[in-house]
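Usage

Read records sequentially. Each one opens with the input sequence:
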Amino acid sequence: MIKHIAILAAALVLSSAHAITIDDVLTQVKQNNTQLKAAGARLDADQKNLKSSNNLPDPEVGGAYLFGKGPLDDKWEIGISQQVEWPGVYSARSNAADAFISALQHGYSAEQLEVLAQARSLCIDIVGYNNLIQFNQGVLNNLNRLFDTYNKALAHGEVSIIDVNKLKIERLLMQQKIDEATSLRTAAVEQLKGINGGIDIAGAESINTYAPLPLLSLEQHLTQARSSSPLLAKQNALVTAQSKNATATARQALPSLSLGYRHVCEMGDHFNGISMGVSLPVFSNRGKKSAARASVFAAEIDASFTQNTIESNIITCHQRATALKNQIGVYDNALTSTDNIAVLNKALNGGEMSLLNYLQELRYFVEAQAVMLSLQNDYNKTLAQLWQYTMP
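and closes with the structure output:
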């Protein structure tokens, strides 16, 4: 049934001068999506904050003026000092900051993946709507030819007005199907515009090809997800970051030093020298080590939960994709192995069936084709989920 219709109707979509691919759309979304722009700005700010968190404290300048009693002269002094934590603290804190920055970067990639997944899903819907419009337009063209034939036959008294009216109604119903799919396509294009920062994507309504993604073995898809999921990478980076932060916290229990310069003037004599001090973190670090260890444990649980969730989703998607692929194969064999409309036309023209029976049979194949196209759409969405971690 499909062969001749597909050839006749393909030009409605494929001949579009602005035909673009799903990848073309995703490239624009990456550049224009306001959510990603905001996320990128936050990432930049958070990275700078983390890098600055390991700076030395500000130097302290102080002085004093003491008034003498009786014949004693006044006394004054001035000095500057710099507090320095134990040297190992800075390197440990720097390592922790680098790990937190890595987690932030993976988090941005995860947010980008989510936005692109929304855009990709809409693109797949548009392909599905275009396929449905293309098929239904082919059926409508066939009905139009049949309607013209019956109109001429009516003028010669060869058919009744009832038959002509049946064809009128059938044409109307088919046009309604086309209009409904067109309306849904328009809505999807508008949603894409919103994801694209409110900027129109020229030719978005003409996307007509699914991405050629194969269905691999379950283990292959699981391996891809484990190695390429930015969300899992983020959680693993947080485990590393919290572990390094625990090391830095432990080192903060070591004394910090204060070094400085002092100048004193007493009874006309000037004295220059250095000042030294040691800060003993007896109270300030209390409870911080256990809190840091608890943060490491929590991060490890989060990472394990994230991996389990991702793997469960991959398993579910793979099972669904396998089932959909089998169902599509059955439908495809029944709908493409024979040109069903040509067979129906031949039977009608040969007087082997009435017009009513013809329309009933035609409606059956139209509905079957719609089911197959819906299955194809679901299958490609499921494949996109399986491949989401490795697609650009």
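Summary fields computed downstream for this record:
- The beta strands are 60-66, 75-84, 256-266, 269-279.
- The chain has eleven helices and four strands.
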